[in-house]
Amino acid sequence: MNTIMVIHPYKHEGMWVFDDDRVGLEREPFVAGADTIIDQMVADIPNATFGFSFVSAAQPFPGYQFKFDRQREEYGGHWSRIAGLSMEGWLCPALFKYFEDTPDEIYAQCKHRS
To answer: Whole-angstrom Cα distance, residue 101 to residue 46?
Structure first.
């Protein structure tokens, strides 16, 4: 079964953050390289800093653009390398609000928020 999740990151005080009332997160920041990866992922999305849709799943889905490969664990989160961008970022423990275990791969799509 493929479960697809959607969050809507935006910039707040210069940081990429997101809110998700369903799992109790407010202004959860992307740090340690994940923020730089997002900058690259949304470079072609107009006004992404005001919010965009980040669609993700542990399995490939039609239209996915990016693939994160799990590298190693650190500080309760996991470092992942994003294929095609040759970049690495840390996915914090908030990841476990969406996945029971850290998947070996996460597939993602970034698009304009309608």
So the answer is: 34
pLDDT value at residue 1: 45
Residues in contact with 14: Cβ distance below 8 Å, sequence separation at least 6, in sequence order: none
Which tokens sit at 5? 């999740």
d(CA 24, CA 110): 22
Locate 23 and state its tokens.
């799992």
Whole-prediction pTM value? 0.89
What string of DSSP letters covers 39-84? HHHTTTSTTGGG-EEEEEESS--TT--EEEEEEEEETTEEEEEETT
Q: For residue range 52-89, what is the model confidence (pLDDT) as tens digits?
A: 999 999 999 999 999 999 999 999 899 999 988 889 99
2 - beta bridge partners? Answer: none
Question: Please, are residues 72 and 79 in contact by the beta-carbon 8 Å criterion?
Answer: yes
CB atoms within 10 A of CB 33: 17
Neighbours of 68 (CB within 10 A): 24
